[in-house]
Amino acid sequence: MLEYEITATVLQGGLAKATANKSEVSFDATSGRHNELPNPAELLLTSLAACMLKNVQRYSEMLNLPYRKARVKIKGTRTDNPPSMSKIEYVLEVDTDVDDRKLETWHKNILKFGTITNTLMRSCKITGSIIKCNFQ
Predict the structure, then answer these.
(1) Which partner from 4, 98, 123, 129 sits 20 to 30 angstroms from 51, CA to CA?
(2) Domains of the chain
(3) How far apart are CA 124 and CA 132, in angstroms?
(4) How many helical (H) and strand (E) elements, i.e. helices and strands, does the chain have?
(5) Contact of 123 with 88, CB cutoff 8 Å
(6) Is the CB of residue 39 less than 8 Å from the CB of residue 27?
(7) Over the stretch 92-104, which tens digit does the pLDDT of each residue have?
């Protein structure tokens, strides 16, 4: 079993940071909306993106599926009462020459073995697709 630990702090006014390993991430913990820093909902979506992209790399190596670049675009929809993510939609774009069958196998593994993906799928609807693209 793996365990993870972070430390997060906030200053009066709502500017916050989290420390994980030797890295810091600043975020918005104000009562309103900070225009430059990600808020907790955006950090949740960023965590999902990081999980998916980590698995792009992992299963590229395990299944011998080369790629040049990958990008995921994620949109979350929040309900107000109670506040929660009701659905998350994504498009995972991969610059690769693999055939469509291998691309779908890759996609299934990315979703099936993602810690954040599996955790979020238990609490809200996640839908999306993987597509081949050519980044310029």
Answers:
(1) 98
(2) 1-38 (no CATH), 40-132 (3.30.300.20)
(3) 26
(4) 3, 6
(5) no
(6) yes
(7) 999 999 999 999 9
